[in-house]
Fold:
Amino acid sequence: MADVTTYRESVAEGIAREMRRDDTVVCLGEDIGAAGGVFKTTAGLFEEFGPRRVWDTPISEQAIVGAAMGAAMTGMRPVAEIMFSDFLACCWDYLANEIPKVRYMTGGQVTVPLVIRTANGGGLGFGAQHSQSVENWVLTVPGLKIAAPSTPADVVGLLATAIRSDDPVVFFEHKGLFASKGAPAPDGHEVPFGQAALLREGADVTLVALASTVPLALAGADRLAEQGVRADVLDLRTLVPLDVSSVLRSLERTSRLVVVEENPYQGGWGGTVVSVVAEEGFELLDAPIRRVAGANVPLPFADALEEQVIPTVDKVVDAVRALVDY
Amino acid sequence: MTEATELLRLHETMSVIRRTEKAAHDLFMSGLVKGTTHLAAGQEAVAVGARAALRDGDYAFATYRGHHHAIAWGATPAECLAELMQRATGLNKAKGGSMHLTKAASGMLGSYAIVGSHLPMAVGAAWSARLRGTGQVAVAFFGDGATNIGVFHEALNLAAVWKLPVLFVCENNLYMEYTPIGSVTAVANPAADRASAYGLPAELVDGNDVVAVQDAVVRAAQVARAGDGPTVLEARTYRHYGHSRTDPASYRPDGELESWLERDPLTVSAHRLRSLGLTDDDIKAAEDRAASLVDDAVDTAKSAPDADLAEAFTDVWADGGAAWRT
Structure:
């Protein structure tokens, strides 16, 4: 096994491991077959598993997710791809009304072991309809689990947990991370949901991050260390379940919190983290909480403009400095 | 031709549905059924005829007007009425209600209240049956109004290109909620006329004749099980009540209801039973058994305990509880 692999290759690797293990796992989506996916995140699956298990679909997001739901209700474990996360809006009925409610409203008669994978986020100059971070959309719906890995090994480990889960999971792969590299996942690697990773320990501030903001938080922590400020960096890895226990434990050491999220400030997941901390950990805090989040604007096209409205290392460092000096 | 004894059994099941709908109506008027109901009295032949044409384990997906499908697929009047009366013994533990009756154990995989949403689920269940090699078919029952929803077209196209064993059964009861379907639809037969756009065979069926429905579904299921793909059936029928409990249906032209009542499914089947040699006493005995069953069901549901408060927090996750955080 190579010493390093990419996040992109890890998506296909994670799916392939589960398809080898369990023949009820099948994939469907636009261009995922012989083409290997528009982001090449399903490269090799069609060649290994064939057209009986890797299904190209028409551009029909409702049919993709609705059919995946029906298959999941009847003995399969489908992994459906919605190419860009912006397009989740095209099948939002299934995410908001059908998939998360059917188990509950049937009194537990039906389970939906379904994974919806999608490429999330900005930073690549794709413009307003191909760049959003929309994990906050999904967070508003009870009944959906949410994973958003930041490293190649976590991609594989979280995919294993997602595909084996009897509950529906929306799996956010970040476009800006596809080319990033890291250690490959060991054989049999699983990352449980609801367990944040403490990537760096410090005593002065807690940085809570997810997916694309994890490398930003780590780079910010490096720069802060040069200034004598030591940061805890927590990668939440999943939003549902949400590991607020690790956040509170970290705050016992640091007493300062900065949440770094790419989705818009308005309604972002950081607001949920902050509200739990305010309710249950108020006495742990020595300074106000800060959120570094996307601005409440559609994503602009030009790189320089996009950088103005999504989190950056500079913004993370500035937010922490403001708290340290508080 | 259906045997007399078989047809008498179908007649009795339709009587059970008719009596249950009447009970639901009366219990609503006396304040014991809450929320709303969308009664299917008058449309019994579609559900009962289709079920009679299929095998145990074949899947059904229904709409918010789905009492008749649930009972045809094995739900008892007692558990249906208990659900409508918000009792702990309800079919869905009092978490679904009239619009979500579900009997998954016998293949009735739910009633969905977002118009048209379940069509791709049936496609997915059929895909799953194909993948698992079970020989099952899936039926999507839907109203005429669903044919103008986008996902109707996505579902038919996907089912057609994948040649799946799914039957699209439109119950055209002439009204899209309160509006005559013809006044808002570009074609005369809203489901059947559109089938050819997807290369699918279609058939217009007398939806008030249980035998005609049964025969048409037998033919369509044979095609599906042979691997030759979906069929669109459009059953012309009529609902006796308005759209829902708040609708007196005063928009219906004078005489329309009366003319349909002359061809009521129970009248049609009773006439055929007589032509097959059964006596009025035979038919009345079947109807009396149905009446007795439903009378007992009303008593059983009335005496059942109220919904268990703890159930508000179960069946969110397959792995237990309602917790979303650690």
About this structure: The mean pLDDT of chain A is 97. Residues 7-21 of chain A form the longest helix (15 residues).
